[in-house]
Amino acid sequence: MKEFVVYTLMRLLLFVAVLAVVLGLWILVFGHEASVLWPLLVSFLLSGVLSVFLLNRPREAFARKVQTRAHRAAERFEARRGAEDDSAS
Questions:
Q1: 5 DSSP assignment
Q2: What's the pTM?
Q3: Three-state SS for 17?
Q4: Which of 6, 10, 46, 49 has minimal Cβ neighbours within 10 Å of its Cβ?
C-alpha cells in the first residue's frame, strides 16, 4: 500500500508543478482573461509523459508489490484448491 501512496502523491505533485508552470506561461502570453481549460489539458498530457520518465523507479516498486501480492494470492488459491481436491477423493 505504501508504494501506491508514494507513486500517487508523486504523480499528483508532478501534475501540480507542471500546471503551475504552464498556467504561469499561459497567463504571461494570453493574460488573465484566457481560459483555464487549455492549460489544464496541456498540463495533464505533459505530466503524463514526464511521469513515464521521471517516476519510473516508484512505478516499478509499485508493480513489484502488486506482482508479489498477486503471486501469493495465486499460491493460496492453488493450495486451497489442492486441499479441496484431496478431501473430495
A1: H
A2: 0.74
A3: helix
A4: 49
Q: ∠ CA 74-75-76 to the nearest 5 degrees?
A: 90
Which grid coordinates are listed for 8? 500517487
Torsion angle defined by CA atoms of residues 54, 56, 58 and 61, in that order, rounded to the nearest 10 degrees: -170
Q: How many whole angstroms separate alpha carbon 49 and alpha carbon 3?
A: 20
Place of cell 495465486: 74
DSSP label at 1? -
Residue 35: pLDDT band (50, 70, 90) is: confident
Burial of 43 (0-12, 13-18, 19+ CB in 10 A): buried
Distance CA 41, CA 29 (A): 17
Name the strand (E) or helix (H) holding 51.
Answer: helix 37-54
pLDDT per residue over 63-78, tens digit each?
899 999 899 988 998 8
